[in-house]
Amino acid sequence: MRRLGSVQQKIPCVFLTEVKNEPSRKRECQQFQVFATEHLNPKALASDVANAIATEKLDGTCCYVSSYKGKPYLWARFDRKPNKQADKRFKKFQYSQKNSTEFTWSVEEDFKAVPDSWIAAHGVQRCNGQPQPDECGHIPEGWVPVEKNNKQYCWHSSVVNYEAGVALVLRPWGEEELEITIVPLSELLEQTLELIGTNINGNPYGLGSKKKPFHLLVPHGVLKIRNAPAVNYQQLVGWFQRCGEANVEGIVWHCNDGTLVKLHRHHLGLKWPDVDTYLNSRPVVVHVDVTRYEWEFPVMDLFTALSQFNGQKFEHIRDIQFDV
């Protein structure tokens, strides 16, 4: 599990990358793509990535658990983006410059306001104490607390209950299976997790339905890749093109010195999702029993819906369907 003190670091690619002037297949409105070269990132080499632990990179949205209002809270990722005028200037610069000059930002004037509770992610470059934009023109991986009645984060809210102080988590169970269970938020403090489900990134894992959305938190680093390939460009390309355990969005390597490096399929020009995901090939058991808690969970919430399946095993996570 990833414990990073205050907030999540920006994770570099395991290979050095190059930018090509063609529309991104990952991010809308991004007029360039980032591809991995065959050369290992020096940071990965220095951290002995060859002996690192390889884990599945999930396709969701990153979250963070930390204290807010005196108790553990779920925090959602909130990018600090440039305003229209600054974004227009930056795009013009991207298309016209010859890499001989650097674009100059004014954080106070060029960026949209953020909530008072917003905090910048660890690893964001600072100048005179002010967070600075990255090469793409935004400050990534800042955080805002997920308030209970904030409709913008309703899918985040569905997996936590602050009164009971718990969260719905997907994690390994035994050698092959997965488990959906209730975990105290206090046990997740200072960890980052991935929110996956019906309304996140096109739902590549097939969770729930439009009428009955289904979302879960997955702690980062818990889904280890047992037969990971060597950290070699050609071997990784070949591995990602196989079936089974290779049907993942990417790999995150956890090095012994705490360094994290990653590789996405799109860094290799490969499609995602290609076929059925590896996550959906594993049996899953439900251990959700709301009757154990003094707090009475709402009748219509996700905790109560999953509680009807307590103790049941499913061949695939997509097989969990709720009564509408």
Characterise the protein shown here:
This protein is an alpha+beta fold. It has 2 domains: 101 residues, no CATH class; 193 residues, no CATH class. It has 6 helices and 17 strands. A 5-stranded antiparallel sheet has the order 8-5-4-12-13. Strands 9-10-11-16-17 form a 5-stranded mixed sheet. Strands 3-14-15 form a 3-stranded antiparallel sheet, with no helix packed on it. 33% of the residues are buried. The N terminus is likely disordered. Its cofactor is Mn(2+); Mg(2+). It comes from Lepisosteus oculatus (Spotted gar). It holds the Pfam family RLIG1. Keywords: ATP-binding, Ligase, Nucleotide-binding, RNA repair. One of its GO terms (biological process) is response to reactive oxygen species.
- The coarse silhouette is globular
Q: What fraction, in percent, of the residue positions are helical?
A: 10-25%
Order of the strands making up the biggest sheet: 8-5-4-12-13
Number of strands: 17
Count of distinct structural domains:
2
Uncertain stretches of 5 or more adjacent residues:
1-7
- Strand content is 25-35%
Biggest sheet descriptor: 5 strands, antiparallel
Query: Pairing-aware structural class of the strands and helices?
Result: alpha+beta
Total DSSP helices? 6
N-to-C span: 35 Å
Q: Using only CA atoms, what is the Rg?
A: 21 Å
The pLDDT mean sits at 89
The sequence of SSEs as H and E is: EEHEEEHHEEEHEEEEEHEEEHE
Enzyme class: ligase
Protein name: RNA ligase 1
Cofactor: Mn(2+); Mg(2+)
Organism: Lepisosteus oculatus
